[in-house]
Amino acid sequence: MIKTENIVKVDQVMWMIPINGSNAERHMKKLQKTKKERIVEVIVLYVGKKYFEVGNKNGSKYKFNFDFSEKNDPFSSEWLIYSNYIELLDVIEYEELYKIFSNMFNVLNYKNCSLSLDQLRQMKKILHITYG
After folding, report:
1. The Cα angle at residue 122 between residues 117 and 125, in degrees rounded to 5
2. pTM of the prediction?
3. How far apart are CA 13 and CA 60, in angstroms?
């Protein structure tokens, strides 16, 4: 995410993705878009002292604070913005993997576990889990 005004320059390419739970994200989910398809490429149009403005191919414009925080940005509370595409892809992959493992471990219990004892031991070893 953007932290300082020093790295934002006019005509710079950046990428936005809707914040989880936002109206923008709900709209894109209705369109059956995957997380990667929700990425919007934008170009910096204006850089001021307190905020910068970006625009996409459709002509939509969005403003972001330099002191961006997803909870209280008065300009664009629906979007997260990244100056590094690889960083954004890493965030998406992290969220997807976290969701997979979270769902797996929330459902996992000894009564309906489809994993063998050997598989559980391998997972324990990989995850460096200690007990007892």
Report:
1. 125
2. 0.71
3. 15
